[in-house]
Amino acid sequence: MTIEVRVPTLGESVTEATVATWFKKPGDAVAVDEMLCELETDKVTVEVPAPAAGVLGEIVAEEGETVGVDALLATLQAGEGAAPAPAKEAPSEAAPAPAASGGAAVDVMVPTLGESVTEATVSTWFKAVGEAVAQDEMLCELETDKVSVEVPAPASGVLTEIVAAEGSTVDATAKLAVISSGDAAATAAPAAAAPTPATAPAAGKDVADAPSARKLMAEKGIDPANVQGSGRDGRVMKGDVINALAQPAAKPAAPAAPRAPVPAEDAVREERIKMTRLRSTIARRLKDAQNTAAILTTYNEVDMTETMALRSQYKEEFEKRHGVRLGFMSFFTKACCAALKEVPEVNAEIDGDEIVYKKFVHMGVAAGTPQGLVVPVIRDADRMSFAEIEAAIAEKGKRARDGKLSMAEMQGGTFTISNGGVYGSLMSSPILNPPQSGILGMHKIQQRPMVINGEIVARPMMYLALSYDHRIVDGKGAVTFLVKVKEALEDPRRLLMDL
């Protein structure tokens, strides 16, 4: 059966697009929802998935052509009668042995990675070729920019081939391995342990840039090496070139100082481990924040006596009524939301030569996980009750520790709270989570001598730190923000009175 592949809806007011890249060619086998081609509009790129499994027939719109909405892009021969795709290369000696009689080859595919996540890195294989596996047993672990994903075995059998080796980058539709299942699986011949270089996905950009991008770079005399690509595998799109033209020429970065020689007796006691994608992303974003924003930190301290007393008085009744524990984070979230209304520039961001003031609070709550720091976002926290905030923080925190947060759940925050006190930190200067302009650092509650009404008494005190972008937030605004938070926590009744 012939199925037409057409241009999808491109978005409001967008009527045409340019065919940037075809990922498949006529005769190639395709799976349902596998990406066939990429379209480019003035603002965004759109991937076109296969509407059904089969074989790609004719490509009607070639790369570089401009097409309208619903235009015919290609045809697809779907169904059981579809011709098999031609082999791309001759079988090698390292090819996996076929499954023994009675067994069936089961492909292990990349699982759903989450909204907007298109690729991952294979971090660890828990099984080797030739080993028996049980259904749902963990085969390997994938890493994306923010989360780790475990890949279970789709069936019981023997792992006969590893297609994507550790360290290789795979897209959301890639095949990871092959399992020989069935009664005779246990006798299946083990395959070569390492895949050939031809089958391993390339870690870097190995495809041509979009035709419209190449044309614009040629017209403007731009070196493609100086343009950061946002397309699949780092492909440079037209929008990337436009962004590069709008940016001022950057001074070449000074090369990193070479590592000092290490004595041989020390070198043998060192261990080198490749930086994970998550850790690499954290490092890049934090350095970008330092390079871009004018970060300054101001401090204050808060007497937690009244907040602790209120929490102690109602925590049991609160948990019975709402089914969630009453912690300190809901008090701090409420206090910050109130302070952000008073000092709106702390809840704003810079976009070019404009300041964007947010009329809502999407609160980021930094959480430490075994994989690294992540910041899930509690949306519209300013509209939530104490119970709703506590429930949201508990749910997001558990999903963060389990590595199950999606990218969408960690984007769009307008302000962040980081609680280093849970690890015993007494004082720190938190770093901004760009493009946000403010982050509040909470610390350990510690009994300290304070002068109250002329007498020295022990009080549970906490240091607060507000790091802010001095380009948009002045010192007066930063201090005012911290004072508002302090006042709300030292007299939590103010939160009920909206004071």
UniProtKB/TrEMBL annotation:
Cofactor or coenzyme needed: (R)-lipoate
Biological process annotations from GO: L-lysine catabolic process to acetyl-CoA via saccharopine; tricarboxylic acid cycle
EC code: 2.3.1.61
Annotated Lipoyl-binding domain residues: 2-77, 105-180
UniProt cross-references to SUPFAM superfamilies, sorted A to Z: CoA-dependent acyltransferases, Peripheral subunit-binding domain of 2-oxo acid dehydrogenase complex, Single hybrid motif
Protein keywords: Acyltransferase, Lipoyl, Transferase, Tricarboxylic acid cycle
Domain of life: Bacteria
GO molecular function, one term: dihydrolipoyllysine-residue succinyltransferase activity
Catalytic activity: N(6)-[(R)-dihydrolipoyl]-L-lysyl-[protein] + succinyl-CoA = N(6)-[(R)-S(8)-succinyldihydrolipoyl]-L-lysyl-[protein] + CoA
Domain (Peripheral subunit-binding (PSBD)): residue spans on this chain: 208-245
One GO cellular component term: oxoglutarate dehydrogenase complex
Described purpose of this protein according to its UniProt entry: E2 component of the 2-oxoglutarate dehydrogenase (OGDH) complex which catalyzes the second step in the conversion of 2-oxoglutarate to succinyl-CoA and CO(2).
Similarity-based family: Belongs to the 2-oxoacid dehydrogenase family.
Protein's recorded name: Dihydrolipoyllysine-residue succinyltransferase component of 2-oxoglutarate dehydrogenase complex
Organism: Aliiruegeria haliotis
